[in-house]
Amino acid sequence: MRPFELTAPDTVEAALATEGTFLAGGTTLVDLMKLNVLTPQHVLDINALPLRGIDTSDGVRIGALERMSDIAKHPGVYPVIASALLQSASQQLRNMASIGGNLLQRTRCTYFRDVNTPCNKRNPGSGCSAISGINRMHAILGTSDSCVATHASDVAVALVALDAEITLASAAGTRTVKLDDFYRVPGDTPEVENDLRPGELITEIVVPELDWAQRSTYVKVRDRQSYEFALCSAAVALDIQDGRVADVRVAVGGVATKPWRLRAVEDALRGKPATVESFEEAATIAADGAKPLTHNSFKPALVRRTVVRALIEGSR
């Protein structure tokens, strides 16, 4: 880790007026600093900022500095959000990690984290080692010739499924962005992962009121049951009336370069009987457009099976 200057502003205004890299829980930033993947000269510890609180009176509003474990156990938080959080990382990390930091975490691609290997995300123009390398954990959706790294966050998948928005503050003011629109596919600029502008800070996450999201779930398929990133995951919320799917939200993770909303699957399900047969039929298009690599050719089938499993669990 290279030397850096650390300051701790105590107001949002002071933090936004100071140039530097924001530090909350530090569960991603500190790791990458130790590896010299990130080498900020000035780090701003923002833990004293008044960006906490969870309000479930009208949808769900979450301050960006709320810890993942506290959100997961808060009454009124939609089950799909709580489940995604509880299946993330370890209990110790969930106690430290902030929700805002989790949404901004960098990929766990081993080539990105190894400064001795080419990586377009870390060093634009150097190449993507994963395309011809070991790519079992990599993406099949939203990829490009420049990058096939998966997005790591579990809770981002649940929030994208629920049409969540984030509030971003800067010295110039605040703006609100749909989380689905905030994340970018790599294209020719994989180093640009999201729409976070210089000097901006996530201050709040807002999930619109959706009563039927109480019937929701998050299914995570991984190599082991704890402290492992997803091979594939699915976030599902279902509105079932008179045995039919009145409305539905579906997003998947572990298989795409950003949390991946499956709107075509949602369209295929609306109005259909809430049966395994309907779920299986709709899931046949869940991996449309996939571009499997040498070691992850199993993922299209896994996406379909994971979506079906999540729909079955969510319909109970």
Outline the fold blueprint.
Elements: E1 5-7, H1 12-16, E2 21-23, H2 29-34, E3 42-45, E4 54-55, E5 60-63, H3 68-72, H4 79-86, H5 91-96, H6 99-103, H7 129-132, H8 155-161, E6 165-170, E7 173-178, H9 179-182, E8 201-207, E9 216-221, E10 232-241, E11 244-253, E12 260-261, H10 263-269, H11 276-283, H12 299-314
Parallel strand pairs: 1-3, 2-3
Antiparallel strand pairs: 4-5, 5-8, 6-7, 6-8, 9-10, 10-11, 11-12
Helix pairs in contact: 4-8, 10-11, 11-12
* SS strand fraction: 15-25%
Instruction: Please count the helical segments.
Output: 12
The CATH topology label of the domain at 213-314 is: Enolase-like, domain 1
Class by helix and strand content? alpha+beta
Averaged pLDDT, please?
Answer: 97
Largest sheet: 5 strands, antiparallel
Numbering strands along the chain, what is their spatial order in the largest sheet? Answer: 4-5-8-6-7
Order of SSEs, N→C?
Answer: EHEHEEEHHHHHHEEHEEEEEHHH
Q: Give the termini distance in whole angstroms.
A: 49 Å
Q: How much helix, percentage-wise, in residues?
A: 25-40%
Total strand count, please? 12
Task: Show unreliable segments.
Answer: none
Overall 3D shape: globular
| CATH evolutionary superfamily of the domain at 213-314 | CO dehydrogenase flavoprotein, C-terminal domain
Radius of gyration, in Å, reads 19 Å
CATH A-level architecture of the domain at 213-314: 2-Layer Sandwich
CATH class of the domain at 213-314: Alpha Beta
